[in-house]
């Protein structure tokens, strides 16, 4: 550049002094822009580049799935970057690059946090499943061993051991069915919704469950404020499971001669379905947790009745797929009421 400039100045006949001054000014300008370029651009880009390297190293040197270590490493990089905000603010383009890097980093940390929670939940779920499976399997094994050790010839006990083994196999089946249901709901989120007549639908379910309620000597009735023509919108098969789970619980947790009512009423846009009983009720402190997987208020009582502890979490899941929520009101010793709505 300077040589070119000198060449032009000589051609146009400039004096030596002018040429000298122009060369000095150009040199100063060149040195200043070199320093500026280094400070403003190269140093900042170098810094960002080093941080990106640190991010990739964090991923390389941590054990796979060790989310804690990765999150700590990335948080350290994030803190270093955010502390340098003022330094990057002087150049618009580089500041934009810096902000994008911070955004991406925050997103990665968020994703890792979610993955960490999933991992904890999965481990907890597996632990619960193993625990639930162990008891019935152990009882079946013990009953069969006792029978084989000679009890089979003892008429006073052999039937008891066989019945105990049989009842535990039913419990196992129920648990496995509920697990399959949960896993299907989680992997295959598809539901096929259509309009159906809600009163007819509920009456059919009540007929199916009448044997169960008769055995327990509880009265199961439908209290409908809607006409036969009233329709609800949803996946009939899955909603049937919701009502069966809720009525089944109501039967389980209501004493003999109790009463269970399925209520139907209508609002402007929805049908409200309620299942109420005058059974044992649920303590206030337990109410927020009853929809969690494997949560039981009275552990021994529920297991003895064959409960898997998954019924209400399946109910909640299915209603979420219908964008509906389930409400519960309960008073110990007085009874419980579950309620949800469906578009009509
Ligand atoms: P379970 O298989 O144990 O019944 P659920 O998920 O269906 O599991 O219910 C969770 C817990 O909520 C039950 O263990 C029980 O303590 C309580 N519960 C559910 N429905 C009722 C009800 N209608 N009356 C009293 N307690 C209930």
What is the β-strand count?
Answer: 7
**Beginning-to-end CA distance, first to last residue:** 80 Å
Which hetero ligands occur in this complex?
Answer: adenosine-5'-diphosphate
Strand content: 5-15%
Quickly give the CATH architecture of the domain at 194-343. 2-Layer Sandwich
Main sheet attributes: strand count, strand direction, barrel closure: 5 strands, mixed
Instruction: Give average pLDDT, whole number.
Output: 90
CATH topology category name of the domain at 194-343: Heat Shock Protein 90
Shape: elongated
Measured as a percent range, the helix fraction is 55-70%
Radius of gyration: 36 Å
Explained architecture:
The protein has 344 residues and is α+β, with helices and mostly antiparallel strands. It has a domain of 150 residues: Histidine kinase-like ATPase, C-terminal domain (Heat Shock Protein 90, 2-Layer Sandwich), CATH 3.30.565.10. The chain is built from ten helices and seven strands. The chain has a five-stranded mixed beta sheet, covered by helices on one side. The chain has a two-stranded antiparallel sheet with strand order 1-3. Helix 3 runs antiparallel to helix 5, helix 6 packs parallel to helix 10 and helix 8 runs antiparallel to helix 10. The chain is elongated and about 125 Å long. It starts with a helix and ends with a strand. Adenosine-5'-diphosphate binds next to helix 8 and helix 10.
